[in-house]
C-alpha cells in the first residue's frame, strides 16, 4: 500500500520512512504543502501522514482542499501543535486521526493500521477469509494455521485485496498500491502476482471478475 508522508523535519521523516518501509508499505514523501495537495489530489494513496507546519501551504489548508474536492483518503495528522483547540480544528477539517509530537512510531503504525482497516470496513487487525489470515501487526500470513512465505509485492497485493474484502479491485488500483512512484504501473505484473498467490494459497481464493478486476470474499456459508 502506498503511503504519502508530508513532513518537513528530516529526522522525523527518516524515522517514519524506515518504520513504514519495514512494515511493508511503499512510502512517498514531500515537505511542501502545494506539492502535497497536488499529490493527494492526483494519486490514489492508501493514506496520508500529514504535518501541519509546512512551507508553501499549511497542512490544514491542504487537508481542507482535499476534502472540498471530495478526496476521502484517510489522513493522520502528526504535529508539534499540541493545543486542544488546534486538534479540534484538525478533526473538523476532515482528519481521521490526530497524534501530537513527540510520538512513538509503534503508535503511528497502530493508528495507521486502524485507519486502513476502517477505510476498508474492517475491524480486526487480523484480516481473514476462510482459512486464510493476514496479521497486519506481525506481517504474517497463514493458511489453515500454517505460515505462508510471500514476497513483499505478493504481501502488499494480498493486503490490498483483504482490506477491500467483498469488493472488486481493478488491476489498475492494485498496480497503484504495489508499485512505488517512478516505476511504471504494470497491470501484467499484477496478473503474474495473482497467479503466484493462487499457487501458494489456493486457486479459488482470488476470484477474477473479467473486465473489472479481482475479489477476495469469505467462502459461502452452506
What does the model show?
This is DNA-binding response regulator. Pfam families: Response_reg (PF00072), Trans_reg_C (PF00486). InterPro entries: CheY-like_superfamily, OmpR/PhoB-type_DNA-bd, Sig_transdc_resp-reg_receiver, WalR-like, WH-like_DNA-bd_sf. GO terms for molecular function: phosphorelay response regulator activity; transcription cis-regulatory region binding. One of its GO terms (cellular component) is protein-DNA complex. By secondary structure, this protein is of the alpha/beta class. The protein has two domains: 119 residues, Rossmann fold (3-Layer(aba) Sandwich); 91 residues, Winged helix-like DNA-binding domain superfamily/Winged helix DNA-binding domain (Arc Repressor Mutant, subunit A), CATH 1.10.10. Helix content is 41%, strand content 20%. It has eight helices and eleven strands. A five-stranded parallel sheet has the order 2-1-3-4-5, sandwiched between helices. It has a four-stranded antiparallel sheet with strand order 6-7-8-9, with helices on one face. Strands 10-11 form a two-stranded antiparallel sheet. A hairpin with a 2-residue loop joins strand 8 and strand 9. Helix 2 runs parallel beside helix 3 and helix 6 crosses helix 8. The mean pLDDT is 89.
In short:
It contains eight helices and eleven strands.
CATH superfamily of the largest domain: Response regulator
Strand order of the largest sheet: 2-1-3-4-5
Roughly how many Å is the radius of gyration? 18 Å
Largest sheet: 5 strands, parallel
Number of domains: 2
Extract low-pLDDT stretches: none
CATH topology of the largest domain: Rossmann fold
Number of strands: 11
Question: Could you estimate the helical fraction of the residues in percent?
Answer: 40-55%
- SSE ordering: EHEHEHEHEHEEEEHHHEE
Keywords: DNA-binding, Phosphoprotein, Transcription, Transcription regulation, Two-component regulatory system
GO biological process, one term: regulation of DNA-templated transcription
Protein name: DNA-binding response regulator
Domain OmpR/PhoB-type: 124-218
Amino acid at each position: 500500500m502506498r503511503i504519502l508522508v508530508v513532513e518537513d523535519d528530516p529526522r522525523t521523516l527518516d524515522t517514519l520512512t524506515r518504520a513504514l518501509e519495514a512494515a511493508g508499505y511503499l512510502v512517498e514523501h514531500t515537505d511542501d504543502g502545494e506539492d502535497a495537495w497536488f499529490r493527494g489530489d492526483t494519486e490514489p494513496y492508501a493514506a496520508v501522514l500529514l504535518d501541519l507546519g509546512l512551507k508553501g501551504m499549511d497542512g490544514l489548508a491542504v487537508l481542507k482542499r482535499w476534502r472540498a474536492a471530495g478526496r476521502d483518503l484517510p489522513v493522520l495528522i502528526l504535529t508539534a501543535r499540541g493545543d486542544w483547540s488546534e486538534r479540534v480544528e484538525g478533526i473538523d477539517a476532515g482528519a481521521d486521526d490526530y497524534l501530537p509530537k513527540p510520538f512513538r512510531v509503534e503508535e503511528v503504525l497502530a493508528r495507521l493500521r486502524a485507519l486502513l482497516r476502517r477505510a476498508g470496513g474492517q475491524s480486526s487487525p487480523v484480516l481473514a477469509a476462510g482459512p486464510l489470515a493476514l496479521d497486519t501487526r506481525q506481517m504474517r500470513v497463514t493458511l489453515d494455521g500454517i505460515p505462508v512465505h510471500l514476497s513483499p509485492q505478493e504481501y502488499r497485493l494480498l493486503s490490498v485485496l483483504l482490506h477491500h474484502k467483498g469488493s472488486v479491485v481493478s488491476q489498475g488500483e492494485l498496480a497503484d498500491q504495489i508499485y512505488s512512484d517512478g516505476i511504471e504501473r504494470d497491470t501484467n505484473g499484477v496478473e503474474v502476482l495473482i497467479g503466484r498467490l493462487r499457487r501458494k494459497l489456493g486457486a479459488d481464493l482470488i476470484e477474477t471478475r473479467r473486465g473489472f478486476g479481482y475479489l477476495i470474499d469469505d467462502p459461502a456459508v452452506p
